[in-house]
Design brief:
The protein is α+β, with helices and mostly antiparallel strands and about 130 residues long. Strands 1-2-4-3 form a 4-stranded antiparallel sheet.
């Protein structure tokens, strides 16, 4: 079995195929502008989402500095999994329950903001409706 594992490791860590080598060259020579554009897009989306979320009284959210996710506290929510299931079922909004990230995450939900402003605005409207009703 260890011989088979050795073969697997060898072929997955050495002798990279030509297309992977070319992708690596492209990433090194052309990657920085792509990274800069992506960072700018994510920061703009983050700021847009946080502005909308901060207008909802039951939501508390800190500005994340290094991810494409916002982790928000929903006041009065005791079961984040049940809350997220209800959001999807009744409002068509898919957020991740905080409990999926450990017991300390209970009471929170995670929102990926790698989306356009229209989609984020619609999500905020849906969350607002869910919390109002």
């Amino acid at each position: 079995m260890s011989a088979d594992l050795g073969k697997l490791l060898e072929y997955n860590t050495s002798c990279a195929p030509v297309f992977v080598q070319r992708a690596g060259i492209a990433a090194l020579t052309e990657g920085e502008p792509v990274v800069a554009r992506t960072l700018q897009r994510f920061r703009k989306a983050r700021d847009f989402l946080l502005q909308g979320l901060n207008e909802i009284p039951a939501v508390k959210v800190a500005s994340p500095s290094g991810t494409m996710y916002a982790f928000l506290k929903i006041e009065g929510m005791a079961d984040s999994l049940a809350f997220c299931k209800r959001l999807v079922r009744e409002h068509g909004l898919g957020l991740a329950p905080g409990s999926a990230f450990g017991p300390e995450g209970e009471g929170y939900v995670r929102w990926c903001f790698a989306a356009g402003e229209e989609r984020l605005a619609e999500g905020v409207r849906r969350l607002r409706r869910a919390l109002a009703g």
